[in-house]
Amino acid sequence: MQVVDILSPGRVAVARGANQVTTKSEVLRLLSQLLASGEGKLDASAIEDLLARREGQQSTGVGGGVAIPHAAVEDLDRILGAVLLCPQPVKFDAVDGMPVSIFFAVIGPRRAVGEHLKTLARVSRLLRDDHFRERLVGASDGDAAFALIASEEGRPA
Known about the structure:
The chain has 5 helices and 6 strands. Strands 1, 2, 3, 4, 5 and 6 form a 6-stranded mixed sheet that branches. 38% of the residues lie in helices and 21% in strands.
């Protein structure tokens, strides 16, 4: 499985202009909405609560302008991801103290801990390249960002 397998163009967004976000809570709310979109049985507010509780334990800001909010969801049958790009970085209590521009949220079934951890590792590997992160944050919209991710993984969008 590749990172792009848990995404869809509809779950990738760029927050700029009227859609700009400025706080951690706004980021988590928008990521939750993206994760729930197209998934009829998922409740965005429940996902937001799970992500916020996880952030309360320890920030998922891994440094380098990246955060990977994640949570286990009881009634989910597969791993889902969502990406929010913020050209205007958001203070997110990252381990390096720097604000975050790339938020890649992952939710998975509670019973699939191993696959969940493998997915987090794949996301981390994808986002470790400085040049790729710069290109991703510069994407014009969600479709362009999705295409960049697919291209980076060697797949057509």
